[in-house]
Description:
Layout: H1 3-9, H2 11-14, H3 18-44, H4 59-68, H5 70-79, E1 85-90, E2 93-98, H6 101-109, E3 113-114, H7 115-122, H8 142-152, H9 155-159, H10 167-180, H11 190-206, H12 209-212, H13 215-230, H14 234-238, H15 245-269, H16 278-284, H17 289-320, H18 322-339, H19 348-353, H20 357-362, H21 365-378, E4 382-387, E5 392-394, E6 397-399, E7 404-408, H22 410-413, E8 448-449, E9 452-453, H23 457-474, E10 475-480, E11 525-528, E12 538-539, E13 545-546, E14 549-550, E15 556-557
Parallel strand pairs: 2-7, 10-12
Antiparallel strand pairs: 1-2, 3-4, 4-7, 5-6, 8-9, 10-11, 12-15, 13-14
Helix pairs in contact: 4-5, 10-11, 11-17, 13-15, 15-17, 17-18, 17-21, 17-23
Amino acid sequence: MSLKEVVLSLPVVRDLPQQTQGNVLTALSSLALAILAFAVYRLVTPSERGSIRRLGGLPIVTAWTFFSKRYDFLWSNFRNSSDPHFKFQVLQHQVVALRGEEARKAFFDTKSLDFIEGYKILMGAVPRLTDIAVTDTANEDVSWFNKHLAMLLNKNRLTDGSFNYPLLPSLLGDINWRMEKWGKKGRMDPFKNIYDLVFQMTVRMASCSELANDLEAMDKIQKLYWTLEKSATPTALLLPWFPGPAKKKKEAATKELFVTLYGYVEGRRAAEVPSSDAIDVLIGQGMSTQMIVQFILSVVFAGVINTGINSCWALVFLASHPEWKDKVKAEVNAIIEKHTNTLSSDPLHKRLAAIPISVWEDEMPVLETVIRETIRLILTGAALRRNVLEELTVAGGLIQKGDFVAYSVADAHLNPEIYTQPNEFDPARFGPGREEDKKGTFSYLGWGAGRHPCTGMKVAKLEIKVIMAVMLAGYDFDVVDKNGKHMNELPKPDRNDIHQVCSGLDFFFSSISYHNSFYRRGLWESRVISSLRGSWIRDVLICGLAGGSRFIYIYTFIN
C-alpha cells in the first residue's frame, strides 16, 4: 500500500471532499519533502560552528540533578561521550560543562569568564544584604574585596602588630582558649570542635575583639552561619521565589547576622580609642557600616568552610597514616626546639606564637605537602564562571555571552594521567623526582589558578598549620574501627554534596545517620595512645560525627 493510499484511508481524510483530499495530500507531501531536505542538509553540511552537545530531557530534572548530585551528574554525562564539553539548562540560563587540559586553561585564564557572576546565581549560601532589603553599597568587583583582605591579613599585621599588637599570638590564644574548654579528658568531634577553631580565628581576623572574645555571641553567629550554609538547597536555588522553610530560615538568619554585626561595627565606630582590629581598620578606610558588615560576611563564608574541612581531613588522614603523622610531628617539634626557648615554662600556644611567620611559611615542607595532598583529595567539586564579555571558543565549542561555565576540579585532581593512584593519600607525589602536579597546565587547583589565585592562601595555610601544630605537639591519636582495631582504609568519599556542610552540631556523638559532605556512613573511633613527649603532650581519642562516621578524641593534658 502506497503512502497516498494510507493517507486516503484515514477516516478523517476519507470523509473530506475530493478536492480537499488533494490539498491535504499536497500539504503532507510538501511537509515530508521539507523534513527530508532538512535531514539531508544536516547530513551533508558541516556542523554548526562550535556546536556543543546539548542534554535532552526536562530542564527542571536536569537542573535538579546538577544541584543535588553534581559530581555524578557531570561525570555520568562526560562518560557518555568523548566530547570535552556538553550543555544543559538551569532555569533560563545555559550552562556549559568543560573537561580536559585545553578547557581547564581557558576556564582559569580567560578574562571573559567572570568569577563573581559565575557563583552569584548557581551558589546561594553567602548572604547578601539586598536579600533583607538593606542597601548594599559594597563593590562586587573581586579586586576590591582582595585589596582589603590583603591589607588586613598582610605579614606585618600577623606578626609584628602593624597597629597595636600582632594577630598570630591572638589566633593561638584563641585555639588554646577553645581547647581548654574540651577539658583534660573527654570526647570531641573534630567536625565540630576543629570547625570551632577555624570559625573563631576567622571572625577574629575579620571583625573585632569584643565579638571574638564573647563566646556566647560567637556561638550565636556560628549557628546562624550554619543555617545559611544549609539553606542553599536545590529548591532554594531553582525556585528562589518559593516561600519554603529554607528561604524563610535564610532571610531570618541573614537579618539576625546583619543586626548583630551592625551593632559591633557601630560600637567600634563610637569607641573613643581606636584599636588594630579589622573593623577599626575598615572604618579608617572610610567604609560604611553596611559595607563592613558585607565584607565580614564575605570573609567568613569564603574562609570557614574550606579551611575547616581541610584542617579536619588533614588530621584524619594523618591519623590513618602513622608514617606521615610521625614525619609531621617531628617537623613541628623541630621548629619548636629551634625557634623557641626550650627552657621556657610558657604553655605550648605561647611558644608557638614566638615562631617567626617566615618559619611557618618556609620551614615546614612536610606539613606543606600533607596539606596540599589533603586539598587535592577533598577539593573535587565544580568551579563556576559566567561569560560576560563576548562569545568565545573553548576546546572547539562555542560559549555564548551570558552562558555559565562549570569545570569539575576532579578532572585534574583525580585524573590518573596526572596523579598516580589518584584516590590514595600520598603526599610524596609532590616531592623531587615525581612532582606530579606539574605534569600539565593547572594540574593542581587547590589554591586557585590563572586569573583567580586565592588571595587568602597564606592566611588559610597558617590557620591550618597552627591547628595541626597544636594538635600534633599536644596530642597523639589513632584511627580505629568500631571494634577498636586500627582502620587501614577510610570509607570512600561521597563527592556529591556541593555545599560541604559537614558538622556534628546537631548529632554530636550520638547519631550515626547525620549527613557529612564528604564521607558516607561508617562508625569510626580512635583509641588513646600513651605518649609523653614533652610537658605539653595530651593523649587523645578522636571522635566525631562525619557522614554518620564517628571520631572520638579522648584526651589527657599532662602538666
